[in-house]
Amino acid sequence: MNRNRFFILLMVVFALVLAGCASAPSADAAGAADPEGCLGSAEEALVDLECREITIAVENAYLPFNYISSETGEPGGWDYDTWNEICTRLHCTPVFTEVAWDAMIQSVADGQYDVAADGITITDERAEIVDFSEGYINIVQRLLVRQGETRFASIEDFVANPELVLGTQASTTNYETALTYMSADRIQAFEQFPFAVQALIAGDVDAVIIDEVVGMGYLGENKEALELIGPNISSDQLGFVFPKGSDLVDPVNQAIQSMKDDGFLNEVNVKFFGPDFTITYDDIVTE
Question: What element of type H or E holds 214?
Answer without folding.
Answer: helix 212-219
